[in-house]
Amino acid sequence: MTMVxxxxxxxxxxxxxxxxxxxxxxxxxxxxxxxxxxxxAITALxxxxxxxxxxxxxxxxxxxxxxxxxxxxxxxxxxxxxxxxNNQIFKAIGNRVVELQSERIRSDYLPSGxxxxxxxxxxxxxxxxSIVAELKNLSSQDRxxxxxxxxxxxxTQ
Length: 157
Known about the structure:
Elements: H1 3-21, H2 24-51, H3 61-67, H4 72-79, H5 88-109, H6 118-136, H7 140-151
């Protein structure tokens, strides 16, 4: 099981358990964990596309450097700019990634209290699972395009 799969499993489990223990903290953690599953899926996609996906390449300093090159702010900015926001597939993925990112920030930083109904928590976790599946199903060209535009800054002339 990959880290992304484990994070998705954990988000599902937290969302399910939040019903049993009626805890806003557990719901918040489910949403935050769901976002991080997506973030790690995207960073892994970027590193694999730019450096190769072999097991040996994942243990190199270069792989780690590319994997860690993406940050949360640049992720949001890239999805809101051309060419990613002009492509329907990337736009749909990007809108949901940005929504999850915003909810992750709310979950992690707002003062305590209930933020989500159970159905909303479940929807956000399912959205993360759906995004990860869509990333896996991208064509090789779309994967490469996504990696390049997420990792490298867009320079104006």
